[in-house]
Amino acid sequence: MHFLAPLLLAGTVLATAPIIIHLLNRRRFTRVNWAPMEYLKLTLKTNRRRLRLEQWLLLAIRTLAVLALFFAIARPISSGTNLAGFLSVEGRASRVIVIDDSLSMSYQEGDQSAFERAKNAARQILNQLGPQDSVSVVLASNPAQTLVRMAHLEENERDKLVVRINELASCQMASHWISTLEDIDRQLREATFPVKEVIIVTDLWAAGWTVEVQDLFDRWSQEQVTVRFIDIGAEPAGNRVLRSLELDSRIALVDQEVKMTAVIENAGDEPLKSGQALLTVDGDVTPVSLPEIPADKTVNVPVSVRFDQPGQHVVSLSIPTDKLQDDNIQRKVINVRQMVDVVLVDGEPGLNPFDSETDFLALALSAGNSSWQVTQAESSNWKNQLLSAPDLIILANVDQLSKKRITELEELVALGTGLMIFAGDQCDLELYNERLFKGGNGLLPARLRQISDLQSQGLVIEPIADSPIELLKGLTPELLSRVRPRRFADVIIDSSTQPNIDQQKVRVLARWNDASQSPAVLEKRFGEGRVLFWTITADKSWSDWPAEASFVLAMRVAAQQIAADIQRGDNLIAGEPIHYELETITAPQSGELIWLDRELDPLDITFGSIDESKTMLNSTPVRFAGVVEANWQDSQLSEQTQKFAINANVDDSLQKKMNEQALQQFLGRMPLNLIRYQGKEMDLSTEGTELWRYLAVLLLGCLISESMLATWIGRRR
Hints:
It contains 14 helices and 35 strands. An eight-stranded mixed sheet has the order 19-18-20-21-27-26-25-23. Strand 20 (392-396), helix 9 and strand 21 form a beta-alpha-beta unit. The model is unreliable at 80-91 and 683-688 (pLDDT under 50).
């Protein structure tokens, strides 16, 4: 119970006045023994018990009348725990109605989705609230942007709010209840009335509920905030999810097959029979055969496309629909390139064909491959030239590198440029360790020990996921056994002696087939880029491998996997903001995001400069899945566009509904108040009923009773 005027409760001390007066009146009489009174004692003794009861009853009524008076003017408000009931009187409370609009709310049961049922429940709650209530209505995905905030709704305002609720659509974000409830907590601090209530309309799917919410609910319980749950969700019955659609390589080229992998999960209890998915490329639809997917299993489905023009292309894949449709489609914006720019830095140039260190590399990358633009440069000249930003740089037996050039390389690789390093007799091992390895913080994956002779019978490819040379595992053992190096650069990769080595960023991708299993190829992640170190030379001085066909395949595969990726934030998950770096220094003034596949209002975008050379395009979190196009004008007033693909957050596809015991674990000390939605109509009542009317009736009854009882006691008998 709460009081709108709690200070007036101090007047309840006056309830002691009748008791004090009664005690004082008893002391006014002096006991005197008089002989004739002895005859009256016998009569009074028989009525003493009745008289004492009448006096105590009169005293209680007078005391209760005083208490009722001051309790009434203090205006108490009830705060019961039951949502079901009747609105017998007007109430005063601050309420926040939260409508869950996450991806799971699009789950279809019968002719209605869970979100449609949630909107029905919200409308009924609003219709039963009086204009004296302070009401906020928010969406769980965007609680800061309220539909209405702490408003007293008259009938016409309520009708307008209901129209807005009818127009709402569920988003494709995942639930994250701790952030939602924290924002609601900030709103409750601004509440007008002491009675505070949060009504959450949700499907009670387990996704998004974490233990962090327990502390907040415990505090609300101490502050006497009431929390109501209206469960509008149906029991989930199986679901299939298209979890991702990813490129198998970092770059996509014109007139070359671009391979992708679709990950499809069957979360149901029944096998998913083979069927067809629909692959859409720039609006053209092609069927894709799907294999049978066993119950509770995930399969990878290969998908390939080909593009005849460079630029941005929109690709989407959709699997057959089920009760939860929003997780059955994945979209992707692919930047298709005309060519890949590769710079080969030759540390030991030659006069005759294939005498130079990079001749075999140039042949492997460019022969019959018009999409690769290969530039050979002698290291003596390259080290003094202005460093450009190619997609891939290959250092082959380069003797020395200045600190300035190494710093420039680190900046390029950190931004995504690929780097390959080949060993050789020209390499200064001590200088490489000092400037390129840097105790594990530099570009080189491992410390160089020495140049050693080697007797190896082949190359062994390590079974590592996402390896740049993973395709070499498909070669026959006979082909790999023909790779026989005579010398190699021995390395040290012991993390116990080199604590700065990050084992998650440094991997051995291949080893020589010798007794020591010496590393042949090492990889290091450096910022957004990748570095490959080959422990042999790129020419035939240390092995005959460059003359083998497998060398051509290895170089092409590795180069294509580590070359600079220009997919710069084009693909996002619903709920993420857009942050896209523009190739301009001057920030545009304004722009907007236009939906290309949904009928939604445009979104605003802003532009800001990070430093003197970077300009970022920014947006608020995008709540819906689809394809958007950013439009703006650059400093020369020319129109610029950039497409972005927004995919549903399938983390919310977890089909697990919480029961009351599971929900109570998150609530902590907060009592569980739950109503199950049974249909289109519910009987809901509000809380926070003012009780002064009841106390006024009680006061009037006390006054009447006191007058009648006092008259009865004072009659002549």
